[in-house]
Design goal:
The chain folds into two domains: about 120 residues, Butyryl-CoA Dehydrogenase, subunit A, domain 3, CATH 1.20.140; about 120 residues, Nuclear Transport Factor 2, Chain: A (Roll), CATH 3.10.450. It is built from 14 helices and seven strands. A seven-stranded mixed β-sheet has the order 2-1-6-5-4-3-7, sandwiched between helices. Strand 5 and strand 6 form a beta hairpin. The longest helix is centred in the first third of the chain and has 24 residues. About 35% of the residues are buried.
């Protein structure tokens, strides 16, 4: 086995870990896969003869790639984003198909946390994820973020305070259903004021690639913009349980065509996910609710 084949084999052995690191930093499984692939391209061109801890070195490579992606994302906030979905609706089939997928989505990267992480500066996010979630020491984080170890510690500390103050999603199904039901009613009736009252000021609407191909925006931010998107629409959407949580479904010919997933915190909608990809729709447990 030559050196390149050996390196490829070792990289594959670490892929699940690297994907988990990238997901926690980026909040998107598709972007995490892109980051891991780009990391492999970088690694395959590198001399690893002097690397003592390959796993740790690979983690830092992925972290640098993710930091660049986060900075690029920040710099083009005013431009339409490529489809970037944090996949808050976990399909029950995922656990059987890919146990790591279930773990990645189930632990400390729920939608409420992802919303908070999105507000952090890229270096803060990387420092927090590397140290608090993967126990990487600050003297190794420092060169990644271009700061001293003490400054890297401060970055993680600031991020930690924001994360610890994050609200958790409402778990009460009756409350979830009431909020989603009111949202659908306000949307159908074009009641802009009622929509604004139900939306968090920093609400984010995200659409998967299948929805984007119909002409929708990949991402819409802010209560006013999201209310404008839904006002007078969603007339055919029905209240539903989506994997046990309150959501909505637009069905045609008895088959779900678009699923709306909601993340609700303290009675306010903080994120809406629109999913139309047939494969993902087929993995969801959907129960239509009668009024």
């Amino acid at each position: 086995m030559d050196e390149h084949d050996w390196l490829a084999e070792r990289f594959e052995a670490h892929r699940s870990h690297l994907r988990a690191v990238a997901y926690r930093m980026l909040g998107s499984l598709s972007e995490a896969d892109d980051a891991v692939q780009e990391s492999w391209l970088n690694v395959s061109r590198s001399d690893t003869s002097g690397v003592d801890n390959l796993g740790g070195w690979l983690t830092t490579v992925v972290a640098r790639v993710c930091l660049d992606m986060l900075r690029s994302r920040k710099s083009r906030r005013e431009e339409p984003l490529d489809p970037h979905v944090s996949e808050p609706i976990v399909s029950r089939a995922d656990a059987a198909v890919d146990p790591e997928h279930e773990v990645v989505l189930a632990d400390s990267v729920g939608l409420a946390l992802l919303v908070v992480l999105e507000t952090l500066a890229p270096a803060e996010r990387v420092a927090f994820v590397m140290h608090d979630l993967f126990a990487v020491p600050f003297d190794e984080i420092a060169p990644i973020v271009g700061r001293s170890p003490a400054a890297a510690r401060q970055l993680a500390s600031r991020a930690r305070r924001r994360v610890q103050g994050a609200a958790t999603p409402d778990a009460d199904l009756t409350r979830q259903r009431a909020v989603v039901d009111a949202f659908l009613a306000a949307s159908r009736g074009g009641d802009f004021g009622a929509l604004l009252a139900l939306l968090d000021p920093n609400v984010v609407l995200r659409a998967d690639g299948a929805v984007v191909r119909t002409g929708a925006s990949a991402e819409v931010r802010g209560a006013t913009a999201v209310a404008e998107t839904f006002s007078g629409r969603a007339r055919a959407a029905q209240l539903a349980l989506v994997n046990g949580a309150a959501g909505a479904v637009w069905a045609q010919g008895g088959r779900p065509r678009v699923v709306f997933g909601f993340s609700i915190v303290r009675g306010k909608i903080v994120e809406i996910e629109m999913i139309a990809d047939p494969e993902r729709l087929g993995q969801l447990d959907i129960v239509l609710l009668n009024k």
